[in-house]
């Protein structure tokens, strides 16, 4: 006799996530299912396939249940989605400063009118870098064309999300790729100047209109997505948004500081001194804390004194906070993050593809798909995981990253520190 059932999960609020509380919650859940104990007693072989997060209380709770009921053979496996999320988190820590910059940029662009303002700045930057060629287009450089295709494959490749949102993103990316390939067919993305080929001479007003209505929406279709530190999905879209501007004529390093109303590029000595004396977080907190009394800012405790509760500080000034986020994004853009993020993106792609496959296998759509298809043998979740195809694809993707040479790298990233980062990732 084979019995299969779907047991609803009860959301319980706990004071502490200990092994004892988890054990009691699991026993209460099993006792809520009628006839479960009778079926177990009448069966000759009872198997329990358990999948939890690899935390200490979970392991201890399952060992305690095995001791309380030795009639069931338990197979405790750890959740693959949690493993992949931990891998992604560890990889993100290697480029944590750039991730912080992406978050600051996305938060700064959430203000009303920020995207429109950045598009205006991008239009001005593109026009200032144009070299207009009237007549037949020059012969295309094979090296420049290969680099352009590599950048578009990296930034506008196939999305890993298979839902409705993923289909919308895929259509938008195909449109972006067609427009960018048409505009940049005679340009080298590694340079700063942009060659614009036109068969006839056009007026400056018509040229500006064409760039503002076609090229700028392809480079900047929407505001920067938020890089989610507390969520497992969506990080790839934020990285792709930044990479497209960073690897296309290094537009990011000029557009974002001008959008943030920052002064000109500081001298190398000033930039080095600033990086040695204060970090990004100190810079942000110094701007946000404007208006706080000095006595509250420099509150200190002696070694022998008991801990005192600090006095309440001034109210949060959101205009200063938004200003700080924009300044932080400008400093991030001036660090030229394209090289490090171009190395980080393929590793993130391997994690995201396997993570979305785990979500697909654990979803109700997986059961509906395999129950309605015409097949002699139906596939179940247990069989899908035992086959290990997703794990093999994951390791194949990592092996291809290890053994291949990154093609979408700017010239500034061809350095020893980037090679060390690639090996660490």
TrEMBL record:
Keyword annotations: Signal
Superkingdom: Eukaryota
Protein name, as recorded: Uncharacterized protein
Signal peptide bounds: 1-19
């Amino acid at each position: 006799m084979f019995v299969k059932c779907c047991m609803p999960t009860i959301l319980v609020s706990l004071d502490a996530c200990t092994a004892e509380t988890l054990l009691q919650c699991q026993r209460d859940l099993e006792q809520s299912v009628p006839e479960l104990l009778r079926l177990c007693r009448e069966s000759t072989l009872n198997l329990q396939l358990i999948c939890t997060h690899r935390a200490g209380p979970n392991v201890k709770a399952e060992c305690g249940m095995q001791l309380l009921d030795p009639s069931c053979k338990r197979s405790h496996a750890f959740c693959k989605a949690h493993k992949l999320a931990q891998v992604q988190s560890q990889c993100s820590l290697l480029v944590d400063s750039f991730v912080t910059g992406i978050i600051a940029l996305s938060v700064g662009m959430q203000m009303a009118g920020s995207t429109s303002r950045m598009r205006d700045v991008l239009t001005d930057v593109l026009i200032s870098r144009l070299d207009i060629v009237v007549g037949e287009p020059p012969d295309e450089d094979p090296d420049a064309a290969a680099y352009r295709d590599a950048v578009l494959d990296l930034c506008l490749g196939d999305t890993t999300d298979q839902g409705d949102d993923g289909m919308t993103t895929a259509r938008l990316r195909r449109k972006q790729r067609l427009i960018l390939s048409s505009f940049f067919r005679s340009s080298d993305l590694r340079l700063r100047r942009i060659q614009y080929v036109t068969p006839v001479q056009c007026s400056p007003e018509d040229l500006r209109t064409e760039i503002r209505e076609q090229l700028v929406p392809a480079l900047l279709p929407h505001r920067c997505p938020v890089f989610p530190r507390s969520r497992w999905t969506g990080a790839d879209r934020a990285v792709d948004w930044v990479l497209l501007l960073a690897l296309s004529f290094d537009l990011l390093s000029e557009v974002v500081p001008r959008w943030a109303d920052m002064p000109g590029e500081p001298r190398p000595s000033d930039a080095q001194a600033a990086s040695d004396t204060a970090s990004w977080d100190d810079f942000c907190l110094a701007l946000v804390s404007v208006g706080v009394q000095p006595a509250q800012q420099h509150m200190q405790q002696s070694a022998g004194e008991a801990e005192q509760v600090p006095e309440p500080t001034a109210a949060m000034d959101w205009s200063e906070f938004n200003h700080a986020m924009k300044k932080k994004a400008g400093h991030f853009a001036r660090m030229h993050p394209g090289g490090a993020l171009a190395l980080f993106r393929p590793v993130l792609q391997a994690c995201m593809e396997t993570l979305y496959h785990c979500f697909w296998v654990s979803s109700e759509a997986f059961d509906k798909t395999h129950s309605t298809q015409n097949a002699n043998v139906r596939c179940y979740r247990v069989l899908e995981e035992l086959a290990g195809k997703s794990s093999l694809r994951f390791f194949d993707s990592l092996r291809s990253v290890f053994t291949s040479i990154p093609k979408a790298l700017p010239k500034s990233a061809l350095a020893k520190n980037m090679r060390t980062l690639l090996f660490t990732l």
